[in-house]
UniProtKB/TrEMBL annotation:
Documented EC number(s): 4.2.1.44
Pfam families linked: AP_endonuc_2
Broad enzyme group: lyase
Protein name: Inosose dehydratase
InterPro entries: IolE/XylAMocC-like, Xyl_isomerase-like_sf, Xyl_isomerase-like_TIM-brl
GO molecular function: myo-inosose-2 dehydratase activity
Stored Gene3D superfamilies: Divalent-metal-dependent TIM barrel enzymes
Annotated keywords: Lyase
Residue ranges constituting the Xylose isomerase-like TIM barrel domain according to the UniProt record: 107-252
């Protein structure tokens, strides 16, 4: 079985200031579109007792460097939301790197202390498992784990599963269809995201404002190939289209997320 969710990041909710949609409006839009679930978004944004029939798919939390307080707070939130048949997946985010954020997708400069970072990831993964959740490391443009080689290295140094993000992998030089096959045994969650390499200009924020993450089927992602590779996948699939709300009409963002789900359904997912 697989379930399909969307995420507040698709609506620019992580941006400073007033969210473009109130939580109840976002939940209603995703429920009406036919999604099975929703990602957590910023702690405190969602009313986890009022998800209009949606289940909680998971949520991002930075890899803890010292204290587990933020991780524990996220896991506490998970426990307050409906999630069956799959438990929410804590997606562990590697630290951002300003130089990479300024020039995303090139894997430069490289992280130097892999042993220390791997130990932090492993400790966070173990903490999640103590709490009854199976985490996944989310590679990300502008962060310490960005390229296919870095993902491979992290998988070798830890036993953590992978949150495979097709858009971030594509723009970092990876092949999402090949990755879904090569890392199938280690994938704990999939984020389906399209992207346009032609819009890789400037820093990551500028790229997002320019629409580098396109509606599904409008970028460079081999979407039919991704769908075919997910035929036997079981678990949460999260549709994401990272955006800056100041550059988009809210109505268009809402329409895009409904269209993204329709596109996946048309392809047989």
């Amino acid at each position: 079985m697989r379930l399909i969710a969307n995420a507040p990041v698709s609506f620019g909710v992580f941006e400073p200031g007033q969210p473009p949609l109130a939580a109840e409006e976002l939940v209603a839009a995703l429920s009406e579109a036919g999604y099975d679930g929703i990602d957590l978004g910023p702690l405190g944004y969602l009313d986890l007792g009022r998800l209009a029939g949606l289940r909680l798919a998971g949520g991002w939390v930075d890899v803890p460097e010292e204290s587990f307080d933020d991780l524990d707070a996220t896991l506490d939130a998970f426990g307050r939301a409906p999630s069956a048949p799959f438990r929410p997946v804590p997606t562990l985010g590697p630290p951002s790197m300003p130089a990479r954020f300024a020039r995303p997708g090139h894997g430069e400069p490289e992280m130097t202390d892999w042993a220390a970072f791997a130990a932090q990831v492993q400790a966070a993964a173990d903490r999640c498992r103590e709490r009854g959740y199976e985490p996944a490391l989310h590679h990300h443009l502008g962060h310490a784990v960005e390229t296919p080689d870095e993902i491979e290295r992290l998988l070798e140094l830890t036993d953590v599963k992978l949150c495979l993000d097709t858009g971030h992998l594509l723009l970092a030089g990876g092949d999402p269809v090949k990755a879904l096959a090569d890392w199938s045994e280690r994938i704990g969650q999939v984020h389906v995201k399209d992207a346009s390499s032609a819009l890789m200009n400037g820093d990551l924020r500028s790229m997002m404002g320019a629409g580098v993450f396109t509606p599904l089927g409008e970028g460079d992602l081999d979407l039919p190939g991704v769908v075919a590779a997910l035929r036997d996948y079981e678990g949460w699939i999260v549709v994401e289209q990272d955006t800056l709300p100041a550059h988009r009409r809210t109505a268009d963002i809402v329409a895009d997320q409904a269209a993204n789900l329709r596109k996946l359904k048309e392809l047989g997912l």
